[in-house]
Amino acid sequence: MRLSNKAEEILEYLWIMIREMGEERVSLKELKTDRDAPEIQELMSLNYIDVSPDSATLREEGMGEAESAVRRHRLAERLMVDVFDLDRGLMEENACLFEHLLRREVEESICTLLGHPGVCPHNRPIPAGRCCRDSVKTARNIVSSLADVKRGVKGRVAYLHTRDNKKLQKLMTMGILPGVTIEVMQTFPSYVFRLGHTQIAVDKEMATDIFMMPGR
Amino acid sequence: MNAKTKEAKCNCHGNVDEEVEGLRKVVLVGSPNVGKSVIFGNLTGKYVTVSNYPGTTVEVTRGRAVIGHAEFGVIDTPGMYSFLPITEEERVARRVLMGENPDVIVHVADAKNIERMLHLTLQLLEAGLPVILDLNLMDEAGGLGMKIDLDVLRKALKIPVVATIATEKKGMDLLKETISGYEKHVSRVPLRYDGLIESAIKGIEEGLEGSYGISKRAVALLLLQDDPEIKGMIREREKDGGVAVYKIAEEAGRGFSQPLNYVITLARQAFITKLVEGAATIEISRRTDLKERLSQLMMHPLTGIPFLLLSIYALYEFVGVFGAQVSVDFLERRVFGEYINPFVTGVVTSIIPWKVVQDLFVNEYGIITLGVRYAVAIILPVVATFFIAFSIIEDTGYLPRLAMLLDRIFKKIGLNGRAVIPVVLGFGCDTMATMVTRTLETRRERVIATLLLSLAIPCSAQVGVILALLSGNVKALAIFIIVMTSVFLFVGFLSARLMPGERPLFYMEVPPLRWPKLSNVFTKTYTRVEWYFKEVFPLFILASVLIWAGKLTGLFDIIVNVLSYPVKWIGLPEEAATAFLYGFFRRDFGAAGLYDLKNAGILDGIPLVVSIITLALFMPCIAQLSITIKERGVKMAVGMAAFIFPFAFFVGFVVNLILNGLGVTL
Fold first, then answer.
1. Are B387 and B460 in contact (CB under 8 A)?
2. DSSP line for chain A
3. Average confidence (pLDDT) over B271-297
């Protein structure tokens, strides 16, 4: 059965607050809802959440569905930014609409198409789906890590993804920034690519964090 | 830091430092390898080392120059990619900008990569510094069909912009005019960040009371980008220890899910992209020319490794055969053996009747017959040929390509490809190379690289003498190379295991291949040989005097006697102890001592190889030791020495055992 959009959003919010922010419960006021609202009733009837008079929390049963909703939302954001090239404001708006339309099968192909991205454009982690765990790279990725790209491929840098701030700084000082065009010249023993009118050599660790859109 | 307090330094970068206090100051800054040192040379008429790899200049150089009608102090700085530093040299360069109150800053930029270069220009302007933008390497930009409208840049940035080809001295007049006519003013960049960041900047600006040598806006931006050095300065210079402004920065950081450094850089990038679109046009004319093909050949592992071996062979022919055999033979046997030595000996013995005083100048350990002969006849030809070959290699831009090729191997010994440059330079001069370890990012890498240089990289003088000693004996040469490589890898591997630290990352700009300029190769070789000679010559003479005095007092015999024990343990004749004693002064001096022993027929076969290996593992020389102390501290330097000398004998011992055990005949 398909959850209502409202219910999905509640699940997402709860999951973020509980799993990422470390809260235990979230007040209904913060969720902008109340006990009698249909979406709360819907989630309670599915045993997904626990509601005390003025706050709610996720139950084990709801965790999977909630994670999947977050994943779809963040994937939708990635799609908006990387493929449709929307700017941030438009991205938010469209991603919110789009996520509810994503069904599991489509979600997986989009995830594969985007190269199983690890983070959303806000740099928050995207929960891994089955496709990422199986890591079947059958479909052609639209966005791929430089480390997976073949020699001779040319494309624009889509984003940098690293949790290591120092590494990010190093990439940036070399001029490796979203939007710049790079052309991969060599992949072994190190990666060499043309950036503007220079060539830059990086090792695999650095290359892994550069995501590019080949052929664009 | 001003010129008066600067430390004593190694002058292999060209001995040009001059007092510039009280003069108007021009500071040259910019990314690595864009030509700052060439411009410094053009302005001051003084030579500092120029090469084609990032990180040639690792320290600040000062010189005087008459520009227009006034005298200026010109300051050359190590390359910096960004005002937010990553490496030590970048920090050094920024300290000059913040601490020396410059009157003009010339931002030297690579014209063909203008888009990447303007980040630093913007950062300098944000810092309220008086900037002239100099687009250098215009020849390379032109070769790509690039046209840049300087007026667009002038108008947008509100600063003077000039174009130069420094190596051909083109555009220098205009640059000089611009410098001499420059009036210090602050240009505001029309670059605004996200509202949240702007309000944080405003809050921090208002909260700052100390002075930093740059605008408060820049200090605020650096604080927001979490720059540790700025944070430290704020802690010291603000009354509340910076608590209030730290809080603003932290709060601003929470407003974004990405690091502020990223957000801020992207904003600059957007501004620059727009600016460059209006200023630069390019007709794509990417032709794969000879240089490009050569470059790919050097970098591809299948062709790159054979190319490397071929280059080493060419180097061997030039340095090992022409320098160390033909030239040394001529100077040593003919010039000294047949003319100088007999002549000087004759003169000295006829003037001075006392044998003791005669020994000071001539005979076995005399100043002329030992010190001068070693320096001029054995070391000089070797060093000169080596430095010629090295200057050519440096100027082509081969070293960064080699770095890329060897990165994976260097990772195994706790270093990354970047360290290939100091290590290769070590074959020229370990002292110079130890200074270049500054370009490495972490302390761990710098320590490992310094240790390996001190232990396993023989310098040019020594390599030359060794080649001369082993000439014609391929087996012995192979054993030497195998043992040295194994020691290098083994000690590197071990120290990487023993020293905890973050995994090194490799990233490096690969400059275009350039044909070496004959004049630069000549000047650079001359400067280095001159420096080397000044360094070596007095020391060799001093050593001769010390040995003479030691002989007179009997101290020499005692030390040689003590040294003869470890020497005998590793299977060498007793006489080799004297060579090892020289080796404590300089490895190359010791190697020259072995050269004499071999010629006298005392040393050959396995003992010769063992003694060469042992001596090659000694610490390089006193100059290198003092640089190690300066760069790594006394404790570290003493620790290294305490490890290296016994370890050298240990390796000699093991090699002797194995070779004899296997019944190898050489």
1. yes
2. -PPPHHHHHHHHHHHIIIIIS--S-EETTTTT--TTSHHHHHHHHTT-EEE-SSEEEE-HHHHHHHHHHHHHHHHHHHIIIIIS---HHHHHHHHHHHHTT--HHHHHHHHHHTT--SB-TTSPBPPP-HHHHHT---SPPSSEEGGGPPTT-EEEEEEE--S-HHHHHHHHHTT--TT-EEEEEE-SSSEEEEETTEEEEE-HHHHHTEEEEET-
3. 85
CA distance B189 to B272: 11
The pLDDT assigned to B8 comes to: 36
pTM for the whole structure = 0.85
Nearest to B149 by CA among B282, B5, B316: B282
Residues of chain A with pLDDT under 70: 1, 85-89, 104, 134-141, 216
Does the complex come out with an ipTM higher than 0.90?
no
pLDDT bucket at B622, cuts 50 / 70 / 90: confident
Q: Check CB contact of A173 with chain B, cutoff 8 Å.
A: yes
* pLDDT, tens digit (0-9, with 9 covering 90-100), for B395-408: 999 999 999 999 99
For an interface test with A, give the residue of B404, B418, B439, B513 to mutate (most A CBs within 10 A).
B404
Chain segment B312-349, per-residue pLDDT in tens: 999 989 988 899 889 999 998 899 999 999 999 999 99
Residue of A168, A203, A204 for testing the chain B interface, max B β-carbons within 10 Å: A203
Residue B71 is encoded by which pair of tokens? 């005298």
* Mean of pLDDT values over B352-357: 90
Interface membership of A139 toward B (CB under 8 Å): no
- The stretch B132-137 carries a mean pLDDT of 97
State how far the Cα of B405 lies from the Cα of B308, in Å rounded to an integer: 10
Residue A65: CB partners within 8 Å, gap ≥ 6?
A3, A11, A48
Instruction: Tokens 């990289």: give the residue.
Output: B457
Q: What is the DSSP string of B568-605?
A: HHTT--TTHHHHHHHHHHBHHHHHHHHHHHHHTTS--H
> CA–CA separation, B427 vs A42, rounded Å?
75
Side-chain half-sphere CA neighbours of A143 within 13 A: 30
Neighbour count for residue B59 (Cβ, 10 Å): 19
- Measured between alpha carbons, how far is B71 from B63 in angstroms, rounded to an integer? 10
Q: According to the 3-state scheme, what is the secondary structure of B606-622?
A: HHHHHHHHHHHHCCCEH
Q: How far apart are CA B403 and CA B401, in angstroms?
A: 5
Cβ B405–A189 below 8 Å, yes or no? Answer: yes
Instruction: Establish if B194 touches chain A: CB-CB under 8 angstroms.
Output: no
**pLDDT attached to residue B286:** 61
Average pLDDT, chain B: 90
- The partner residues of A194 in beta bridges, in order of sequence, read A183, A199
Q: What is the dihedral of CA A124, A125, A131, A132, to 10 degrees?
A: 130
Place of tokens 């240009």: B187
A174 touches chain B (CB under 8 A): yes
Q: Which two tokens stand for residue B302?
A: 């299948």
> Which residues in chain B are contacts of A203 at CB distance < 8 A?
407-408, 411, 416-417, 505-507
Q: Across the interface, which of B140, B266, B407 has its CB nearest the CB of A189?
A: B407
- Count Cβ atoms below 10 Å from residue B406 Cβ, excluding itself: 23
